[in-house]
Amino acid sequence: MTLLECINGPEDLKGLSQDQLTLLAVEIRDLLIETTTRTSGHLGPNLGVVELTIALHRVFDSPKDRIVFDTGHQAYVHKLLTGRVAQFGTLRQRGGLTGYPSQAESEHDLVENSHASTSLSYADGLAKAYKLRGEPDRTVVAVIGDGALTGGMAWEALNNIAAAKDSRLVMIVNDNGWSYQPTIGGLAEHLAAIRVNPRYEHVLEYIKTTLPRAPLVGPPLYGTLHRVKKGIKDVLQPQVMFEDLGLKYVGPIDGHDERLLEHALRRARDFGGPVLLHVITKKGFGYPEAEQNEIDCLHQVPAAGAVPGTWSRVFGDEMVSIGARRPDVVAITAAMLYPTGLAQFSAAYPDRVYDVGIAEQHAMTSAAGLAMGGLHPVVAIYSTFLNRAFDQTLMDVALHKLPVTIVLDRAGVTGPDGASHHGMWDGSIMQLVPGMRIAAPRDAKRVAELLNEAVEVSDGPTVVRFPKGKVGGEVEAVGRLGGMDVLCEPADGLGADVLLVGAGPMALTGLDVADRLAVHGIGVTVVDPRWTKPLDEALVGAARQHRLVAVVEDNGRVGGFGDAVARLLRDHDVDMPVKTFGLPQEFLSHGTRDEILDEAGMTPQHLARQITEAVARRASGDVDDAAAAPERRPVE
Ligand SMILES: Cc1ncc(C[n+]2csc(CCOP(=O)(O)OP(=O)(O)O)c2C)c(N)n1
């Protein structure tokens, strides 16, 4: 039995010797590597926080004290130290452990959202709540990476935390110099000053020798830390920035020296007010393959990069061609140059790419500025992160009718990253935006075609959305209906029973459904709308020629393309049943894309069955009596 297997909770850590802790760190790293290379997952970030997480669980008393991991992708070590070693092999598998903290898994987990830069706000609120509820012995700890610290929310939180002088709050900045790629921006340069300074070693030595002499509790301690800090101030300046915000800064601390970390954490805990602890770690620490990986320190395995054959790569390749023709086209990424497929564009036109950090809101309004300045920005982000920038899209871009193209990768079900990563909201929230045009390519050829159409639009914003993973085979249209592609007509001898409108790759699913329905004698016309907003009025006439309309989209069912089609037909007094198929409006958990689509009833088999039943009901005039005539009761 390994030492790690004997750890059933943080209390089992408390009695371990320093040698045992060193062995434990080795065992944790081995398990992280072995598991993530098999199941996929965030390897580099977790290798970097092994000592930090051990120290956190030895110093703080979780779950009484609350540890909030920003983004949560680096919480695997925390999972291992809080009783989940035995299940760790199920990481990110359907029914297994999630890749982020999960309340259902453990009382030690609190924040499940994996969108970055939120931890300080949660921590601010928690600390204030504990104070108001009279629970003064609880400390809140937030662990935030230097990447997540580039997000605006983190700075809004810092501003508030600085004013909450008696909040029992420890902020740990886990500074490894990397997001997915090296963290960019003024803040990053500021923090980097410490890491690259040749006198860093001396600073660490100075802290190591000075801290143990600090008094044990309260402000006098801070006084000492403060003097330590002032002592190094002439050498290194990064703390000044936090100090100027009114925050107590301690650091830099070597984040792979467990003993030193414990020491600093105990003192931060006992200070009694907000303290910011600056910890320097190495992403991928202890695994040379990760440490030396130049692209992303194995941030994620397998890499989230735009490998050939993926939707992201098709987009990236087309951007390079567009860039050659259109010097006004520029690209924006929010810290995800490789995963979004912009790496080649960046290599070809380095002056025309802006990596703004994990700052989707800024990305969008900065895009508005670029467009106002005469350029055509393409903002490439994952669908789920567009949520962050809704107001900026609505009021900063759309209100001004600006030519900004938003390219949404990972639209629809994504898979193993779970509820906060499924791109199932954009199709609905973008429907709300006046003047927005939304394209949904069904295959690689249509990505290129629709992206080109989108960047040609000069009087308002456009969206191009496509899913995660490999792009399937190409399917040519057999006809055209308005601006839409007809992919198949009812088979010979069959009537025009169903008009099936499939958005994006769901049009190809529609072809499979049509084949299955033909076996049952049901004739189907499959249409790919290409643009899901604005709606093509040709849909109205086409609907009138059929007996039922079915709309399929890889997006939440509420307020998406399906609802828009139903509204269009209602507005034109088309008396026609419209079946809308999409994802249930729920927080869908993790699993493979196929598993989740299957559960949501979005496979050709499920769809064919549901449509067959609807056609049969329509033919027999059968309606659900209970739904049609709800029981009436007198008002009491
Ligand atoms: C709002 C938002 N945008 C983008 C991402 C994608 N993302 C996940 S982790 C990460 C980098 C995080 O860097 P950092 O906070 O420094 O942590 P590290 O991985 O270096 O430990 C990014 C950009 C996200 N989770 N949330």
Describe this structure as you would to a colleague.
The termini are far apart. Helix content is 40%, strand content 15%. It has 636 residues and is an alpha/beta fold. Residues 198-204 and 206-235 have low confidence and may be disordered. The strands form three sheets. Strands 7-6-8-9-11-10-16 form a seven-stranded mixed sheet, with helices on both faces. The chain has a six-stranded mixed sheet with strand order 12-13-15-14-17-18, with helices on both faces. It is globular and about 80 Å long. Strand 17, helix 22 and strand 18 (578-583) form a beta-alpha-beta unit. Helix 3 packs across helix 11, helix 5 (119-132) runs parallel beside helix 6 and helix 20 (506-519) packs across helix 24 (604-620). The structure holds thiamine diphosphate (TPP).
